[in-house]
Specification:
Radius of gyration: 21 Å
Family: Belongs to the prephenate/arogenate dehydrogenase family.
GO molecular function: NAD+ binding; prephenate dehydrogenase (NAD+) activity; prephenate dehydrogenase (NADP+) activity
Number of strands: 10
Organism: Falsigemmobacter intermedius
Helix content: 40-55%
Bound molecules: 1,4-dihydronicotinamide adenine dinucleotide, 3-(4-hydroxy-phenyl)pyruvic acid
Distance between the termini: 15 Å
Structural class: alpha/beta
EC number: 1.3.1.12
CATH superfamily of the largest domain: NAD(P)-binding Rossmann-like Domain
Catalytic activity: prephenate + NAD(+) = 3-(4-hydroxyphenyl)pyruvate + CO2 + NADH
Order of helices and strands: EHEHEHEHEEEHEHHHHHHEE
């Protein structure tokens, strides 16, 4: 936001004093507040950036303190649950436009952010029937200003898509690292030493924040279980093919998956920065304040 010049000023809130201090030191925020209610005062845009399971509590806290005409958004990895948690606390005259930038790392905290994080990455907006088109357009411009490509979809579809492309793959990575850890015949040092890039990426993903991922699976339960069920069916089919030494089936399967990968095109676009006002960021909630 700051690099793109789309924030007049950024106010932040995080519960931990160390996080607030770090956010100021690295220039992530112009000011930090010990309470979310202070951070959102006079903010034009408030971005909730807490684990999905903590969204309801922070929305309830800030609800009565939001400026009329403000827009509330979030970056949660699951969207239906966030809408259910946040929407009841949004007062009349304040917009709520849920969003999910598909960008991040296994690291957490203010030091994990960097200006190019969202460049050429997708940000999915899942407006509710109550989200005014003007607010949706403004939030789109906000994310495009940081270099993101923006798409809109409804929240249930978002949650299903993410179960396929992110949530279930993360679960598989967590599981595979757990399996390697249990296998006493292969030491942890051998796992690290000899891991090819695929498994190394599993271990990177397995280092992601446990609270965040617990909340993702608890709140996107149905879609994750649906995809996981399909995954295990395919896995059993491949397991059987290996047992039966059915090379033809294995080859046909891998030929199909290779074609899918080759069909995936990385399309990116840079967009112009919108003219945004003053931004207030909260470790847990980020708020954009009036242009000064
Ligand atoms: N890390 C990633 O790669 C991505 C994360 N997300 C989503 O963004 C959100 C935030 O994740 P990160 O920024 O990675 O986490 P983070 O750990 O860097 O920041 C989370 C903040 O929430 C605060 N917090 C935690 N529990 C809280 C509670 N009960 N009440 C109030 N504050 C609380 C923490 O103190 C911290 O300041 C999550 O909903 C996550 O699903 C979305 C895209 C990518
Ligand atoms: O670290 C990775 O590879 C990620 O996939 C980061 C990530 C985590 C959660 C999201 O909702 C979006 C992106």
């Amino acid at each position: 936001m700051r690099e793109a010049g789309i924030a007049g000023s950024v106010a932040g809130h995080a519960k931990s004093e160390a996080t607030r201090k770090a956010a100021l030191e690295i220039g992530f925020c112009d000011e930090v507040f010990a309470t979310a209610t202070d951070a959102v005062k006079d903010a034009d845009l408030v971005v909730l950036a807490v684990p999905v399971g903590a969204m309801a509590a922070i929305a309830a806290e800030i609800g009565p303190h939001l400026k009329p005409g403000a827009c509330v958004s979030d970056v949660g990895s699951v969207k239906q649950a966030v809408i259910e948690a946040v929407a009841p606390h949004i007062p009349e005259g304040v917009d709520f436009v849920p969003a999910h930038p598909l960008a991040g790392t296994e690291h957490s905290g203010p030091h994990s952010g960097f200006a190019s994080l969202f460049r050429n990455r997708w940000c999915l907006l899942t407006p509710t029937p109550q989200s005014r088109p003007e607010a949706v357009a403004q939030l789109r411009a906000f994310w495009e200003g940081m270099g993101a490509n923006v798409d809109e979809m409804d929240a249930p579809h978002h949650d299903l898509v993410l179960a396929v492309v992110s949530h279930t793959p993360h679960l598989i990575a967590f599981t595979m690292v757990g399996v390697a850890d249990h296998l006493r015949r292969v030491s942890n040092s051998e796992v690290i030493k000899y891991s090819a890039s695929g498994f190394r990426d599993f271990t990177r993903i397995a280092a992601s924040d446990p609270t965040m991922w617990r909340d993702v699976f608890l709140t996107n339960k149905e879609a994750t279980l649906d995809i996981l069920g399909r995954f295990t069916e395919e896995l059993f089919m491949l397991q059987r093919a290996i047992r039966m030494e059915d090379g033809e089936q294995l080859h046909a399967y891998f030929t199909r998956t290779r074609a899918i990968r080759r069909g995936i095109i990385d399309a990116g676009q840079d967009t112009a920065a919108p003219d945004f006002g003053r931004v207030a960021a909260a470790g847990g909630a980020t708020a954009l304040k009036g242009k000064e």
